[in-house]
Amino acid sequence: GAVVSQHPSWVICKSGTSVKIECRSLDFQATTMFWYRQFPKQSLMLMATSNEGSKATYEQGVEKDKFLINHASLTLSTLTVTSAHPEDSSFYICSARDRGRGREIGELFFGEGSRLTVL
Amino acid sequence: EDKVVQSPLSLVVHEGDTVTLNCSYEVTNFRSLLWYKQEKKAPTFLFMLTSSGIEKKSGRLSSILDKKELFSILNITATQTGDSAVYLCAVEYGNTGKLIFGQGTTLQVKP
Lengths: 119, 111
Description:
- The structure holds 2 protein chains of 2 kinds.
- By secondary structure, chain A is mainly β.
- Chain A contains no helices and 11 strands.
- Chain B is mainly β.
- Chain B is about 0% helix and about 60% strand.
- Chain B contains no helices and 11 strands.
- Chain B has strands at about 5, 10-15, 20-25, 30-40, 45-50, 55-60, 60-65, 70-75, 85-95, 100, 105-110.
- The interface of A and B includes residues 36 and 112 of A.
């Protein structure tokens, strides 16, 4: 079963509203989670690294005031797209690192993704 | 600039064919190379490669890494329609767990 859960899977919102996406690690503690964005027919692009108990680290070109990340607990990170616009429509995916599982069986797990459509 | 390049970008084959997908990279502080299969939603993990020349195998899929020439291949033998997907190659760099993804190879297997 899934070890990283994202919610919601789909969201449609009006331009100017804010949308929150949750990413939960289900059976492990994740001190670090990653948020990716994927536009149609393109690959995943890392947006930011979410660190439990501290500020997120954003990749170049990603507006931190627009994409608010909160990692308040060891099992939950949230991404809030503030004042969303149509160009923010994309597939947002989180991943979490389970250090306890060790490297050889793939320690990075992805959530199911959240498809955002801004009208 | 760090980059991961996959080829071909798309491929159409018939069931039973064997395919080879390529991934080359230029990444500082290389840590591992990962292959994922993406169908409609999030990627699912296939392989993680850290050492050169050691083939990893799972059923009809296998993969190998060449750290000298900076590339990896993913082989799928006796392809089935269920193998149709986008195959993503990603390189983990540093000790942060960050990944750089290639553009992906879209594989379509026809009956």
